[in-house]
Amino acid sequence: MDLITFAGAALDTTSAIEPRAFAVLAAGLAIGLGSLGASLAIGIAASRAFDAGARQPEVFAKIQTLLLICIAFIESLAIYALVVALLLIFTVK
Length: 93
Prior knowledge:
single chain, mainly alpha, two-stranded antiparallel sheet, 2 helices
């Protein structure tokens, strides 16, 4: 067994990293990047919709309907990222 002394504590360098540690890290990355992507996409979609509504106010009702449908689809991607993160946390032993 190889031991390294670090700050007065002996660290074992031959032990393997637990798969659970990778699963938790992957879950954090999945939900973090998934929510970041969804929030950026919603911000861009809303910005473009309000810009289009300011340019042509007579079609703003149609644009608003399309925006709400797009936001629902974008949020479903964030929910998929949450499901993947929860699966990683609770299924990896």
